[in-house]
Automatic annotation (TrEMBL):
Its cofactor is pyridoxal 5'-phosphate. This is Aspartate aminotransferase. It catalyses: L-aspartate + 2-oxoglutarate = oxaloacetate + L-glutamate. Homodimer. One of its GO terms (molecular function) is pyridoxal phosphate binding. The keyword Endoplasmic reticulum does not apply.
């Protein structure tokens, strides 16, 4: 008997006899004593975990993610008045997650279709989904699509689309530097660094005006090396909610094209594709990462797409072949369910129209929360100009609160947000606006 092993693994047990038989079947040259030899090797292995410290004892506790960690802290708080404004996920007026009616309808159609199977998708994903995603972002009449200059691959939401694009650029693009806005979504620098790119920043937000630092943006991109990659938020910049005007987008495009800078759009909303289409219309090349998390509420389905607009169809075909080599060892092929939901909605005119109506209702509620919060702060006489709350767009408001004020609001009012003062307007309701306004007023007047 081996005292360090359970009795059912002892030599001579029925388990051993079966394993010996199997080994002899695989290779008759294996002696019956081989299992005993294997037993002794298993017992002596320094990684067996039976003796001493774990081989992972040196691993240190990692910090929580700066955004998702907010929810972790929120969940641990027993306070009945706690409020989570950290993660960008839409909530109803009652503070509940929502599944769009059109999504429920699409899912029911898919469930009722008995011909559907759960086979692997191709490496590039669901063909209908890719085709419809490209049409959604570029326009059905886009010359780039008509000329087959666009390659689109299904990825794991926006994050996965950015990562696949970063890996592709790290392997096949001559310039390994990407310029990202300051500030930007906290995951951006991590994604691009791990994708093999060197990250630098360009000025974007001006705290003094609560708006776009347009001159700084032009200066920084103007001094970037020729060929550098530039990350652009297609609309509703995260975390500031500050976007260039169409005229400013035109100037950005002219500058980037004149210097041969490569645009990489992150389109987390897709509510406004004008900026993307402006760059595609000039015949130049670009990358676009799309997500269906926020605009269809498919957060947990992880549905996204990466499109690369090329100079001609031949190049696009070769680019797609290399994207497959990026995807295959990363996640092999994407999941089928979420992409099928999106394709079902986008290819049916009635369902598409229903989606846009529900999308507008979500946007209108967020806009309403902006106005209610602004009015509440004005009513309290909170020091400062808070008009940026109603000028910014998208799911987030960049309040301008500093980390000390944020910490104060969490401790005293049980309000959770990222330390940079970004709040998710979609997490607010008419009932919770007064509580948030009280907290902001106290933070500004008492913490400074």
């Amino acid at each position: 008997m081996h005292p360090q092993l359970p009795s059912h693994l002892a030599q001579g047990s029925a388990t051993d006899r079966r394993l010996n038989s199997l080994l002899r079947h695989i290779d008759p040259s294996i002696a019956s004593s081989s299992l005993s030899s294997m037993d002794s090797q298993i017992s002596a292995s320094p990684t067996s975990g039976f003796h001493g410290d774990s081989v992972f004892a040196h691993v240190v506790q990692a910090p929580e993610d700066s955004i998702l960690g907010v929810t972790v802290a929120y969940n641990k708080d027993p306070s009945p008045i706690k409020l989570n404004l950290g993660v960008g996920a839409y909530r109803t007026e009652e503070g509940k997650p929502v599944v769009l009616n059109v999504v429920r309808r699409a899912e029911q159609l898919l469930v009722n279709d008995r011909s559907r199977v759960k086979e692997y998708l191709p490496i590039v994903g669901l063909a209908d989904f890719n085709k419809l995603s490209a049409k959604l972002i570029f326009g059905a009449d886009s010359p780039a699509i008509q000329e087959n200059r666009v390659t689109t691959v299904q990825c794991l939401s926006g994050t996965g689309s950015l990562r696949v694009g970063a890996e592709f650029l790290g392997r096949h693009y001559h310039e390994r530097t990407i310029y990202i806005p300051q500030p930007t979504w906290g995951n951006h620098p991590k994604i691009f660094n791990l994708g093999g790119l060197s990250v630098k920043y360009y000025r974007y937000y001006d705290p003094a005006t609560w708006g776009l630092h347009f001159q700084g943006l032009l200066e920084d991109l103007g001094s970037a090396p020729s060929g550098a990659i530039v990350l652009l938020h297609a609309c509703a910049h995260n975390p500031t909610g500050v976007d260039p005007t169409l005229e400013q987008w035109g100037q950005i495009r002219q500058l980037m094209r004149s210097k041969g800078l490569l645009p990489f759009f992150d389109s987390a909303y897709q509510a406004n594709a004008q900026s993307v289409r402006m760059f595609v219309a000039d015949g130049g090349e670009c990358l676009v990462a799309q997500s269906y998390a926020k605009n269809m509420g498919l957060y947990g389905e992880r549905v996204g797409a990466l499109s690369i607009v090329c100079k001609n169809a031949n190049v696009a075909s070769r680019v797609e072949s290399q994207l497959k080599l990026v995807i295959r060892p990363m996640f092999s092929n994407p999941p089928i369910h979420g992409a099928s939901i999106v394709a079902t909605i986008l290819k049916d005119r009635n369902m598409y129209d229903e989606w846009t109506v529900e999308l507008k209702a979500m946007a209108d509620r967020i806009i309403s929360m902006r106005h209610k919060l602004f009015e509440a702060l004005c009513a309290r006489g909170t020091p400062g100009d808070w008009s940026h709350i109603i000028k910014q767009i998208g799911m987030f408001t960049f309040t301008g609160l500093n980390s000390e004020q944020v910490a104060f609001m969490t401790k005293e009012y049980h309000i959770y947000m990222t330390s940079d003062g970004r709040i998710s307007m979609a997490g607010l309701s008419s009932k919770t606006v007064p509580h948030l306004a009280d907290a902001i007023h106290a933070a500004v007047t008492r913490v400074g």
